[in-house]
From TrEMBL:
Domain of life: Eukaryota
Residue ranges crossing the lipid bilayer per the database entry: 18-39, 60-77, 112-136, 143-167, 187-215, 236-258, 270-290
Keyword field: Membrane, Transmembrane, Transmembrane helix
Region feature Disordered, mapped onto this chain: 304-333
Leader peptide range in chain numbering: none
Protein name, UniProt field: Uncharacterized protein
Amino acid sequence: MAFTAEDARVEIANTGEAIQYCVMSLVFQTFFFGIYTLLTGFSTRMLLARKLRTNTNKMIFGLTTFMYLLSAAHWAYNVADALDFMSEFTKYAQHPDGLLPDHTTVSEWSPLWNAVVLINYVLSDAVVVWRAWVICGRGHRKYLWITIGFLFITGITVFLTIVLRIIGTVQSPFKNLPSASVLERRIDILQVTTLITSLLSNLTATGVVGATTLYHWRSFREAFSDEKKQTSTNRILLLVVESGVIYCFFAILTLSFSVIRLPHGTLGDLYTPIQVQIAGVYPCAVLLLVSSQRSLNDSVFVEDDSVLPPGPPKSESDTGSIRFAHHTNPPLTGSQFTIPLSTFSDVQTRLSDVSEA
């Protein structure tokens, strides 16, 4: 069948619309990447100022650097892809001859890149799970095995998605896989599963940390009924919970947008590159927020935390209260009794005293 002028007009209109979507997504992605770059710079400066003395700081520095470089490479590729897309469209609009291919020599790697960058989801979720594990006492940690299970599934689905995308790129480099093909359907299932398990991992981790926060707040109120201020520990715990809720909100948006159809793909196709940047921003943002509240390092919650009833001071060995690990400062004293304030491990900061604002 001959390619007519009407066919060319329709092809130009459809491609022009696709370019609008592409540019819109790239603009928002660039905005969040700019925020990501600033936060990464601040967090890197903070870690280097501590001269990476601890293994924790070394690991976090390596992890955040790798996540940033992966996001930067993905963003740079998307910029190159958009420029190549517009260049090919300009050439085609001047001399329309047949249908444009689904991919060029640049964009043929786009599906694979979009799969590889999902590694940031796994790393970000791993930071969340590790942080929750360190914060929570042993009585709450048993619930985090559910979270770890979701994290493990997320890692497996991302790995399989990358493998299948490699196969798809080899089989059909310049043409999209048919939506009804077995390979494409399996990739779709894996991608949706990744979004669901990542969301569940964050929800459960945030829920466990929230339960720890509530318990600590109630314990403090029982011990100091007249105290109106929040402890710095409470503020830090609330920051962790609030940041987790916000991240879960963005994860829900990603999952919801994946089922909203557009003339070209889904809304999730446009939003996912943005969520990738947010996944990278999350660990850096929490690091800086908690550090600004004088967070603690190398300290843990102990099992069966409790508050001492009014009475004579007791030794730490006689209590099941929350106490410092590797810390020699004396506990905070109340008007009639002694109670060690609870502390938690933030993987980014040095050991510091719990203090009131």
